[in-house]
TrEMBL record:
Signal peptide: none annotated. Residues 6-106 form the NusG-like N-terminal domain. SUPFAM superfamilies: N-utilization substance G protein NusG, N-terminal domain, Translation proteins SH3-like domain. The lineage of its organism: Bacteria, Pseudomonadati, Pseudomonadota, Gammaproteobacteria, Chromatiales. GO terms for cellular component: cytosol. The gene is rfaH. Pfam families: NusG. This is Transcriptional antiterminator RfaH. GO terms for biological process: DNA-templated transcription elongation; transcription antitermination. It comes from the Bacteria. Keywords: Transcription, Transcription antitermination, Transcription regulation.
Length: 176
């Protein structure tokens, strides 16, 4: 209910799993808000899948430009919003540098391309586990997150299944 001289970021507390709904309804009212998100690998129905969820569950950052009136009643009545985060009677504010850093990190994570799959016959490095450092060749995929590779053991090629996180493309060595 007060006008301010500098732009400010406020912290809002949302209803469970309603952060994106609240963000959309705030945008419909002309407010700018930010919900940092993270993409994780989760097991759902016995399958690993990528899930994007809020980095800070139940929290949302609300930006009010300089001179804009803080209409707490309208914001608190927004679908998905529970209330402002407060410390006593003081509303919680978030430093602009933190929001800028989170925004930049969010953009960087979205620009990273997903890891390309291996091609049959491609040399790979085994990064972890008891076979780390052995010579191996990619053979085929084994589901979404595993691959069958051929490992050289005692002069023979043995097929074995590995988690894709344990494998990396073999980098060509430069003999200079």
């Amino acid at each position: 209910m007060s006008s301010q001289t500098t732009s400010q970021w406020y912290l809002l507390y949302c209803k469970p799993r309603q952060e994106l709904r609240a963000q959309q309804h705030l945008a419909n009212q002309g407010f700018h808000s930010f919900v940092p998100q993270i993409t994780l690998q989760k097991l759902r129905a016995n399958r690993w899948c990528q899930v994007t969820e809020p980095l800070f569950p139940r929290y949302l950052f609300l930006h009010l430009p300089a001179g804009q009136e803080l209409n707490m009643r309208a914001i608190r009545a927004t679908r998905g919003i529970t209330d402002f985060v407060r410390f006593g009677l003081q509303l919680a504010t978030v430093p602009q540098q933190l929001v800028a850093q989170l925004t930049a990190q969010q953009i960087t994570l979205k620009q990273q391309l997903p890891e390309a799959g291996f091609k049959p016959g491609e040399a790979v490095n085994i990064l972890t586990g008891p076979f780390a450092g052995l010579q191996a060749v990619f053979n085929t995929t084994d589901g979404d997150k595993r691959s069958v590779i051929l490992v050289s053991l005692l002069g023979q090629w043995v097929a074995s299944s590995f988690d894709n996180g344990q494998l990396a493309p073999k980098k060509p060595t430069s003999d200079a």
